[in-house]
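All the exercises in this workshop are built on plain-text protein records. A learned vocabulary of local backbone shapes supplies the integers on the structure line. Once this layout is familiar, the rest of the handout is easier to follow. An example says more than a description, so a record of this kind follows:
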Amino acid sequence: MTCQDLAEAAKKRGDEAAVICFNEGKESKTDIVNGVTIYRVGALITVARQALSLSYYSKLKKIISDFKPDIIHFHWANPFPAALLLMVIPKDVKLVVHWHMDIVKRKLIYKFIKPVETRLLKRADRIFVTSPLYRDYSKPIQPYKDKTDVVASAIRGENFDMRSGDEEKIKELRQKYDNKDIVFFIGRHVVYKGLPYLIEAEKYVKSDCVFVIAGKGPLTDELKASCKSSRVHFIGRIPDDELRQYLYAAKVFAFPSITKNEAFGLALAEAMYCHTPAVTFHIEGSGVNWVSLKDETGLEVENSNAAEYAKAIDRLLTDETLYNRLADNGVKRVKENFLIKNMVDACYESYGKIMTT
């Protein structure tokens, strides 16, 4: 979504923009989406969730030659296209590296990735990080902080504005759970999302509430098997309209991620926009604790401490003054910092720096 939003914003500003990415299938194809040409290169195989393609090199080289860009904006972290880009990028073309996350899980193969990572960062004219915390704690970024800018990720606020019929749907959702307070989670069911700690925390929550867990993933079956509580409801994947309605229906947004794999937290910003404060864990160096500020827009507790997480949920469910203050501050923070306009303005400010040097 970040790539799409930036490309479409460039087009609206009168600049030419094109995107090269991997296709979900093995065939390559070209689309035009909202005026932006999208070159989708067929992926031969996927290794460690990274797509690989025999034709990517030739297609990338030809597209750069034909398009003649002033700036190439590369989104890290897939080392394969990064290595190919370094082979074909002309010396006079500016390079922006959008650093979405450190590679923290692939320790065995990281020694092979690191040389590409280092060359990419050295070659970059500017590096974008999504939060000041990631800039200050990311080890690979430290030697290059002088050319690093914060370009916060962003949400499409209009997707989360109340619409006709929402009030009735929200009322129905609350009635579905006997009008009890809803603690809501949405996301992939993977290790770094911290769902086992949320399920453990439920045991300690004293308030009369329900836990609604949306999404699916490799841990779904295991999580269901480990949870015996009747007040925890797994609802699977939900459409966008229902997501918006759940965010407004909920009293607390549960965001129990535990590692820097959670580099920012767009779902967190979406909940805050919908006037729903969150409980987070402290994650050293992650942007999560910059998106939602401790005791200002949400509550934050010691990482992996399920008992403290439960206490924080109870505080939000029982202290109306605290709840309203955090919820109001959360809406304001998102509108001032994490909407598409904010991201595009920050991006173009940095583009300006490299085009004048």
